[in-house]
Structure formats: C-alpha cells, structure tokens
C-alpha cells in the first residue's frame, strides 16, 4: 500500500472523492515529477543536448506542475474544488506536452520513453480524478 493511501486512510474527516482514485493520482503525480526531473538531467548528459532543449524545458515545467498539483490534491481540509480542478487541468496539459515531446525522442533515448510513459499515466490519473470531483 502506498504512503498516499496510508495517509488518506488516517484522515480524520470524510472527503468527497474515492480515496483509491485520489491515492493513485498522488502516486502518479509523484512518479511523473521524479521521471521528468531525471529525464531532464539525462537529456543534459546527452552528446546532442542542443537537440533536446525543448524536451528539457518541458520536463522541468512538467515536474514543477506535477509537484504543485501533488501538494494541492494532498491537502483535503477545506479544499477549494475550483482550484483543485484548475490545477488538475493544468497538470493534464503539462503532462501531455511533455509526453508528446518525449515520445519524439523515445526511439533514441530510453529515458525519454520512460518519462513519456510516466506522463501518460499521470495524465490519465488526473483525468480520472477530475471525473470523480
């Protein structure tokens, strides 16, 4: 069981969203932020780093958006549904942009393939949570 799920199970109040969907989203956000950060760093180590500038930028942006979203959705007390919804929508956009760019390099760079996969999973998790709100 993930730490996100364990923490949600200890929450002393009730909340309006399925804890399993929320925990899966938190886990996907964490994984995506880590994968994007590592992918940007790996890209910086490639010989043809100049060809990966856009990928690096999108990975770093996506990592930041995922981290901010992770923090927002992890706080359940008196949450603002409109803010949460907007943050999740921004994360969907960031993950899609990063995924699309990483997929362009996935044949050549395994780190980009892994990052694209993490972004796809996160995008899907955010969409599921949005549907559950």
Describe this entry's structure for a reader.
The chain is an all-alpha fold and 133 residues long. The chain has helices at residues 3-9, 19-45, 53-74, 81-105, 110-132. The longest helix has 27 residues, at 19-45. The protein is elongated, with a radius of gyration of 15 Å. The chain starts with a helix and ends with a helix.
Which band does the percent of strand residues land in? under 5%
- Which parts are unreliable, with pLDDT below 50 for 5 consecutive residues or more? none
Count the beta strands. Answer: 0
The structure class reads mainly alpha
What is the CA–CA distance across the termini? Answer: 23 Å
Shape: elongated
State the helicity in percent bands. Answer: over 70%
Looking at this protein, list some descriptive labels.
133 residues; mainly alpha; 5 helices
What is the structure about, briefly put?
By secondary structure, the chain is mostly helical. The protein contains 5 helices and no strands. The chain has helices at about 5-10, 20-45, 55-75, 80-105, 110-130.
Q: What are the SSEs and their pairings?
A:
Layout: H1 3-9, H2 19-45, H3 53-74, H4 81-105, H5 110-132
Helix pairs in contact: 1-2, 2-3, 2-5, 3-4, 4-5
């Amino acid at each position: 069981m993930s730490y996100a799920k364990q923490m949600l199970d200890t929450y002393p109040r009730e909340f309006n969203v399925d804890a399993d969907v929320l925990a899966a989203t938190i886990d996907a956000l964490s994984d995506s932020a880590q994968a994007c950060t590592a992918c940007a760093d790996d890209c910086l180590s490639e010989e043809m780093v100049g060809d990966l500038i856009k990928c690096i930028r999108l990975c770093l942006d996506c990592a930041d958006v995922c981290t901010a979203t992770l923090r927002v959705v992890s706080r359940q007390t008196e949450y603002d549904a409109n803010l949460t919804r907007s943050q999740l929508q921004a994360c969907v956009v960031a993950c899609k942009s990063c995924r699309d760019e990483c997929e362009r390099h996935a044949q050549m760079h395994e780190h980009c393939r892994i990052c694209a996969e993490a972004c796809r999973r996160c995008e899907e998790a955010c969409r599921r949570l949005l549907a559950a709100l």
